[in-house]
Amino acid sequence: MSQPVQIGRETTHGTVAGTFYSAPVNFDAHPVIANTIPDEQRGVQDIHYTIIPGRKHEAWSVSDSMVYHDSIGFWLGSALGLGASTLVEAGVYDSVFKFLDDPTSVSLKWTQPRRVVQAYQSLWCVVDRLTLSFDASGQLMVSAEGVGMAETEVGALTFTFTTTVPHTAWEGTVTLGGGAFARLVKGTVTMMRNRNPFPTINNSTDPVDFSIGNRSVEFDLTADFNSKTEYDRYKSGATTALTIVWEDADVLIGATAKPRCTVKLGTIGYTESEIDSATDFPGVALRGKAIYNAADASLAVVTIRSTRQYQTA
User: Fold this and answer.
1) What phi, psi does 178 have (nearest 5°)?
2) Which residues form the domain of 214?
3) Residues paired with residue 89 on neighbouring β-strands, in sequence order
4) In 12, 192, 200, 309, which residue has its Cα 20 to 30 A from 284's Cα atom?
5) How far apart are CA 68 and CA 91, in angstroms?
Protein backbone atom coordinates (compact mmCIF):
# COMPACT_ATOMS: atom_id res chain seq x y z
CA MET A 1 0.00 0.00 0.00
CA SER A 2 1.55 3.29 -1.09
CA GLN A 3 1.53 6.42 1.02
CA PRO A 4 2.62 10.05 0.72
CA VAL A 5 6.00 11.14 2.04
CA GLN A 6 7.64 14.12 3.66
CA ILE A 7 10.88 15.14 1.95
CA GLY A 8 13.61 17.61 2.80
CA ARG A 9 16.97 18.54 1.28
CA GLU A 10 19.99 17.68 3.40
CA THR A 11 22.79 20.24 3.55
CA THR A 12 25.12 17.49 4.83
CA HIS A 13 24.76 13.84 3.84
CA GLY A 14 23.15 11.88 6.66
CA THR A 15 22.15 14.93 8.71
CA VAL A 16 18.39 15.31 8.96
CA ALA A 17 16.90 18.03 6.76
CA GLY A 18 15.99 21.24 8.52
CA THR A 19 12.63 21.58 6.77
CA PHE A 20 10.26 18.95 5.39
CA TYR A 21 7.63 19.30 2.65
CA SER A 22 4.69 17.00 1.96
CA ALA A 23 4.87 15.27 -1.43
CA PRO A 24 1.64 13.65 -2.76
CA VAL A 25 3.36 10.67 -4.38
CA ASN A 26 2.89 6.89 -4.34
CA PHE A 27 5.73 6.07 -1.94
CA ASP A 28 6.91 2.72 -0.61
CA ALA A 29 9.92 1.77 1.50
CA HIS A 30 11.32 -1.32 3.17
CA PRO A 31 14.51 -2.15 5.09
CA VAL A 32 17.11 -4.40 3.49
CA ILE A 33 18.80 -6.41 6.25
CA ALA A 34 21.46 -9.03 5.59
CA ASN A 35 20.87 -11.20 8.67
CA THR A 36 22.32 -14.71 8.41
CA ILE A 37 21.66 -18.03 10.14
CA PRO A 38 24.78 -20.10 9.43
CA ASP A 39 24.91 -23.86 9.02
CA GLU A 40 26.86 -25.43 11.87
CA GLN A 41 27.94 -29.02 12.32
CA ARG A 42 27.64 -29.95 16.01
CA GLY A 43 27.60 -33.70 15.68
CA VAL A 44 23.81 -33.97 15.38
CA GLN A 45 21.28 -33.58 12.59
CA ASP A 46 20.32 -30.02 13.64
CA ILE A 47 22.42 -27.39 11.85
CA HIS A 48 20.91 -24.00 12.85
CA TYR A 49 21.80 -22.59 16.26
CA THR A 50 22.26 -18.82 16.00
CA ILE A 51 21.41 -15.67 14.03
CA ILE A 52 24.01 -13.05 13.12
CA PRO A 53 22.79 -9.45 12.58
CA GLY A 54 23.89 -8.07 9.21
CA ARG A 55 24.32 -4.82 7.34
CA LYS A 56 21.25 -2.61 6.88
CA HIS A 57 19.98 0.05 4.52
CA GLU A 58 16.63 1.28 3.18
CA ALA A 59 15.22 0.69 -0.29
CA TRP A 60 12.47 3.06 -1.39
CA SER A 61 10.46 3.89 -4.49
CA VAL A 62 8.01 6.39 -5.98
CA SER A 63 5.66 4.92 -8.57
CA ASP A 64 3.55 6.63 -11.27
CA SER A 65 3.03 9.94 -9.47
CA MET A 66 1.98 13.29 -10.91
CA VAL A 67 4.55 16.07 -11.27
CA TYR A 68 4.04 19.19 -9.12
CA HIS A 69 6.36 22.15 -9.65
CA ASP A 70 6.83 22.71 -5.91
CA SER A 71 8.07 19.19 -5.05
CA ILE A 72 9.55 17.54 -8.17
CA GLY A 73 12.83 19.40 -7.65
CA PHE A 74 13.68 17.43 -4.51
CA TRP A 75 13.72 14.18 -6.50
CA LEU A 76 15.59 15.77 -9.41
CA GLY A 77 18.20 17.26 -7.10
CA SER A 78 19.09 13.81 -5.81
CA ALA A 79 18.83 12.12 -9.21
CA LEU A 80 20.92 14.65 -11.12
CA GLY A 81 22.32 17.42 -8.99
CA LEU A 82 21.30 20.92 -7.97
CA GLY A 83 22.72 23.64 -10.20
CA ALA A 84 22.12 27.37 -10.45
CA SER A 85 18.95 29.26 -9.56
CA THR A 86 17.68 32.33 -11.42
CA LEU A 87 15.09 34.80 -10.17
CA VAL A 88 12.37 35.06 -12.84
CA GLU A 89 10.17 37.54 -10.99
CA ALA A 90 9.26 38.19 -7.37
CA GLY A 91 8.84 34.82 -5.67
CA VAL A 92 9.41 32.72 -8.81
CA TYR A 93 12.66 30.92 -9.65
CA ASP A 94 14.18 28.77 -12.38
CA SER A 95 16.11 25.92 -10.74
CA VAL A 96 18.52 23.98 -12.95
CA PHE A 97 19.28 20.29 -12.41
CA LYS A 98 22.13 18.51 -14.19
CA PHE A 99 24.48 15.61 -13.48
CA LEU A 100 26.91 16.41 -10.67
CA ASP A 101 29.47 14.04 -9.17
CA ASP A 102 27.94 14.06 -5.68
CA PRO A 103 24.29 15.18 -5.85
CA THR A 104 22.06 16.35 -3.05
CA SER A 105 20.73 13.77 -0.60
CA VAL A 106 17.29 14.00 1.00
CA SER A 107 15.65 12.97 4.26
CA LEU A 108 12.36 11.07 3.99
CA LYS A 109 9.57 10.55 6.51
CA TRP A 110 6.54 8.36 5.98
CA THR A 111 3.80 6.54 7.87
CA GLN A 112 3.37 2.81 7.39
CA PRO A 113 -0.42 2.28 7.49
CA ARG A 114 -1.26 -1.19 8.74
CA ARG A 115 -2.94 -2.51 11.86
CA VAL A 116 -0.13 -0.77 13.74
CA VAL A 117 0.43 2.77 12.44
CA GLN A 118 4.03 3.91 12.82
CA ALA A 119 6.04 6.74 11.27
CA TYR A 120 9.58 6.17 10.02
CA GLN A 121 12.52 8.22 8.83
CA SER A 122 15.44 7.51 6.53
CA LEU A 123 18.44 9.80 6.07
CA TRP A 124 21.00 10.15 3.26
CA CYS A 125 18.46 9.02 0.66
CA VAL A 126 19.74 9.13 -2.91
CA VAL A 127 18.01 8.48 -6.21
CA ASP A 128 19.35 5.62 -8.30
CA ARG A 129 16.81 5.87 -11.13
CA LEU A 130 14.26 8.52 -12.11
CA THR A 131 11.80 8.33 -15.02
CA LEU A 132 9.63 11.08 -16.44
CA SER A 133 6.79 9.63 -18.51
CA PHE A 134 4.28 11.46 -20.66
CA ASP A 135 1.29 10.66 -22.84
CA ALA A 136 -0.73 13.09 -24.95
CA SER A 137 -3.91 11.91 -23.23
CA GLY A 138 -2.61 12.03 -19.66
CA GLN A 139 -0.41 13.77 -17.12
CA LEU A 140 3.32 14.23 -16.85
CA MET A 141 4.35 11.50 -14.39
CA VAL A 142 7.41 10.67 -12.32
CA SER A 143 8.74 7.39 -10.97
CA ALA A 144 11.89 7.00 -8.90
CA GLU A 145 13.77 4.53 -6.79
CA GLY A 146 16.78 4.69 -4.55
CA VAL A 147 18.47 3.80 -1.29
CA GLY A 148 19.13 5.40 2.08
CA MET A 149 20.21 4.73 5.63
CA ALA A 150 18.21 2.17 7.59
CA GLU A 151 14.87 3.47 8.87
CA THR A 152 14.33 4.70 12.40
CA GLU A 153 11.04 5.33 14.20
CA VAL A 154 9.81 8.91 14.59
CA GLY A 155 6.74 10.58 16.02
CA ALA A 156 3.40 10.98 14.26
CA LEU A 157 3.46 13.03 11.05
CA THR A 158 1.20 15.85 9.90
CA PHE A 159 0.96 16.32 6.15
CA THR A 160 0.24 19.65 4.47
CA PHE A 161 -0.18 19.20 0.74
CA THR A 162 0.27 21.60 -2.15
CA THR A 163 -2.65 23.66 -3.45
CA THR A 164 -1.26 23.81 -7.00
CA VAL A 165 -2.21 21.52 -9.88
CA PRO A 166 0.04 18.94 -11.56
CA HIS A 167 1.51 19.26 -15.04
CA THR A 168 -0.58 17.92 -17.92
CA ALA A 169 1.38 16.10 -20.61
CA TRP A 170 -0.43 17.57 -23.63
CA GLU A 171 0.53 21.11 -22.53
CA GLY A 172 4.01 20.58 -23.92
CA THR A 173 6.12 22.02 -26.71
CA VAL A 174 8.63 19.71 -28.40
CA THR A 175 11.79 20.70 -30.25
CA LEU A 176 13.50 17.86 -32.09
CA GLY A 177 16.59 18.34 -34.21
CA GLY A 178 16.43 22.11 -33.72
CA GLY A 179 12.90 22.52 -35.07
CA ALA A 180 9.36 22.41 -33.69
CA PHE A 181 7.96 18.87 -33.60
CA ALA A 182 4.20 18.52 -33.05
CA ARG A 183 3.94 14.75 -33.62
CA LEU A 184 5.21 13.29 -30.33
CA VAL A 185 2.53 11.01 -28.87
CA LYS A 186 4.10 9.59 -25.71
CA GLY A 187 7.41 8.63 -24.21
CA THR A 188 9.74 8.21 -21.26
CA VAL A 189 13.08 9.72 -20.26
CA THR A 190 15.02 7.73 -17.65
CA MET A 191 18.05 9.03 -15.74
CA MET A 192 20.22 6.47 -13.94
CA ARG A 193 23.18 6.70 -11.54
CA ASN A 194 23.88 3.14 -10.26
CA ARG A 195 23.82 4.07 -6.55
CA ASN A 196 24.56 1.32 -4.02
CA PRO A 197 25.36 1.18 -0.28
CA PHE A 198 29.09 1.09 0.43
CA PRO A 199 30.01 -0.92 3.55
CA THR A 200 33.30 -0.91 5.44
CA ILE A 201 34.46 -2.47 8.69
CA ASN A 202 33.17 0.35 10.86
CA ASN A 203 31.59 -1.34 13.90
CA SER A 204 28.13 -0.47 12.57
CA THR A 205 25.45 -2.17 10.49
CA ASP A 206 25.03 1.08 8.49
CA PRO A 207 26.90 1.79 5.25
CA VAL A 208 29.43 4.61 5.43
CA ASP A 209 28.58 6.00 2.00
CA PHE A 210 26.64 5.34 -1.18
CA SER A 211 28.59 4.62 -4.33
CA ILE A 212 28.35 7.03 -7.24
CA GLY A 213 28.33 4.82 -10.29
CA ASN A 214 28.12 5.38 -14.03
CA ARG A 215 25.54 7.91 -15.25
CA SER A 216 23.27 7.32 -18.22
CA VAL A 217 20.04 8.59 -19.79
CA GLU A 218 17.73 6.49 -21.94
CA PHE A 219 14.56 7.44 -23.77
CA ASP A 220 11.64 5.74 -25.48
CA LEU A 221 9.51 7.92 -27.76
CA THR A 222 6.45 7.18 -29.87
CA ALA A 223 5.82 9.63 -32.70
CA ASP A 224 3.34 9.95 -35.52
CA PHE A 225 5.07 8.65 -38.65
CA ASN A 226 4.08 11.57 -40.87
CA SER A 227 7.70 12.17 -41.82
CA LYS A 228 10.59 9.74 -42.13
CA THR A 229 13.19 12.24 -40.89
CA GLU A 230 13.72 10.56 -37.52
CA TYR A 231 13.61 7.09 -39.09
CA ASP A 232 16.36 8.18 -41.48
CA ARG A 233 18.44 9.52 -38.57
CA TYR A 234 18.22 6.10 -36.96
CA LYS A 235 19.33 4.32 -40.15
CA SER A 236 22.25 6.69 -40.72
CA GLY A 237 23.44 6.74 -37.12
CA ALA A 238 23.06 10.52 -36.94
CA THR A 239 22.61 12.44 -33.68
CA THR A 240 20.09 15.15 -32.89
CA ALA A 241 18.73 17.09 -29.89
CA LEU A 242 15.49 16.87 -27.92
CA THR A 243 13.84 19.53 -25.75
CA ILE A 244 10.37 19.27 -24.20
CA VAL A 245 8.81 22.19 -22.32
CA TRP A 246 5.68 21.65 -20.24
CA GLU A 247 3.95 24.84 -19.06
CA ASP A 248 0.59 25.20 -17.31
CA ALA A 249 -1.00 27.91 -19.41
CA ASP A 250 -3.94 28.48 -17.05
CA VAL A 251 -1.96 28.68 -13.79
CA LEU A 252 -0.14 31.75 -12.48
CA ILE A 253 2.49 31.38 -9.76
CA GLY A 254 3.56 35.03 -9.93
CA ALA A 255 2.55 38.21 -11.68
CA THR A 256 2.97 36.59 -15.10
CA ALA A 257 5.04 33.43 -14.52
CA LYS A 258 3.54 29.98 -14.97
CA PRO A 259 4.79 26.60 -13.72
CA ARG A 260 7.25 25.09 -16.19
CA CYS A 261 9.24 21.90 -16.55
CA THR A 262 11.91 21.78 -19.26
CA VAL A 263 13.75 18.59 -20.18
CA LYS A 264 16.72 19.04 -22.49
CA LEU A 265 18.81 16.26 -23.98
CA GLY A 266 21.41 18.22 -25.93
CA THR A 267 22.59 15.25 -27.98
CA ILE A 268 20.75 11.97 -28.54
CA GLY A 269 21.26 8.91 -30.71
CA TYR A 270 18.69 6.30 -31.72
CA THR A 271 19.57 2.65 -31.08
CA GLU A 272 16.23 1.19 -32.19
CA SER A 273 13.39 2.27 -34.46
CA GLU A 274 10.23 0.35 -35.22
CA ILE A 275 7.36 1.38 -37.49
CA ASP A 276 3.87 0.38 -36.36
CA SER A 277 1.31 0.36 -39.17
CA ALA A 278 -1.39 -1.46 -37.21
CA THR A 279 -3.10 1.75 -36.04
CA ASP A 280 -5.14 4.39 -37.85
CA PHE A 281 -2.12 6.68 -37.80
CA PRO A 282 1.17 4.82 -38.37
CA GLY A 283 3.66 5.49 -35.61
CA VAL A 284 7.35 5.00 -35.06
CA ALA A 285 8.96 3.92 -31.80
CA LEU A 286 12.30 5.63 -31.26
CA ARG A 287 14.56 4.28 -28.54
CA GLY A 288 18.02 5.48 -27.70
CA LYS A 289 20.39 7.19 -25.29
CA ALA A 290 21.60 10.67 -24.49
CA ILE A 291 25.20 11.38 -25.43
CA TYR A 292 27.41 13.70 -23.38
CA ASN A 293 26.89 17.25 -24.58
CA ALA A 294 29.90 19.54 -24.07
CA ALA A 295 27.84 22.74 -24.30
CA ASP A 296 25.64 21.61 -21.39
CA ALA A 297 28.43 19.64 -19.68
CA SER A 298 25.84 16.96 -19.00
CA LEU A 299 23.77 14.18 -20.54
CA ALA A 300 20.57 15.90 -19.46
CA VAL A 301 19.45 19.25 -18.07
CA VAL A 302 16.07 19.76 -16.36
CA THR A 303 14.85 23.23 -15.42
CA ILE A 304 11.90 23.77 -13.06
CA ARG A 305 10.10 27.12 -12.84
CA SER A 306 8.48 27.26 -9.42
CA THR A 307 7.71 29.28 -6.33
CA ARG A 308 10.11 26.88 -4.62
CA GLN A 309 13.76 27.90 -4.72
CA TYR A 310 15.21 24.43 -4.35
CA GLN A 311 18.73 25.70 -3.68
CA THR A 312 17.58 27.10 -0.32
CA ALA A 313 14.58 24.85 0.44
Assistant:
1) 85, 0
2) 3-30+57-306
3) 92
4) 192
5) 17
